[in-house]
Amino acid sequence: MVKKKKSSQFLRSCIFEALMILLQQKRYEDITVSEITSKAGVSRMTYYRTYSSKEDIIIQYFKEKVNALLEKEPEIGDEPTEVWYRKCLHFVYDEPVLMTKIQQTPDLAKASQSYLIDLLQYMFRKYRNADLDDPVVLNGLIYKAGGFIFVVSKWIRTGLKESPEEILEWIRKYEQQSSFEKPQ
User: Fold this and answer.
1) What pLDDT is recorded for position 177?
2) What is the four-CA torsion angle of 42, 43, 49, 55, rounded to 10 degrees?
3) Considering Cα of 28, then 31, then 37, then 38, what sign does the dihedral take?
4) Which helix (H) or strand (E) holds 13?
């Protein structure tokens, strides 16, 4: 079972790397599944057994990173939300090519944002016992997630010039104020 898991993980890694190489050569919309599988050295059957779309390649990569983090730091779920933000900001900062490509590709941006919102809902249900069946609670979470997503998107579009800690400090200040005035 462990061998099969490692083999599947290796194949997913090959497919992800193939997509990243192709993204350096052409637009996402112009990349075909055949090109990905050829570059990865896998069959189309292997691809379709694992993914239902090209966007799934990126989402699976994110899921594996989150699962690795939760295995390495199982207590992170109980940490303040600011710790989650910090981890996310460092991940973005450490993956500039991927994040820029995602930002430049509407389908990838939409899928990534949707995944982040789903992840936050999962985390808040599991670790905060949030009643996300309550529309006020759910929409409050989506509101905060949307703000975070837009700040990170702007950061990526402007070249990740600030450090993750600077962005986190801005977010702290934004969350403390209720108006659109410049943070103090």
Assistant:
1) 79
2) 70
3) negative
4) helix 2-25
In this prediction the pTM is 0.87
177 vs 137, higher pLDDT: 137
Give the whole-angstrom CA distance, residue 88 versus residue 178: 24
Q: Judging by beta carbons within 10 Å of its beta carbon (0-12, 13-18, 19+), is residue 162 exposed, middle or buried?
A: middle
Q: What are phi and psi of 67, to 5 degrees?
A: -60, -40
Please check whether residue 39 is in contact with residue 22, taking contact to mean a CB–CB distance below 8 angstroms: yes
For 9-35, the pLDDT digits (tens) are 999 999 999 999 999 999 999 999 999
Residue-wise pLDDT for 44-103, tens only, equals 999 999 999 999 999 999 999 999 999 999 999 899 999 999 999 999 999 999 999 999
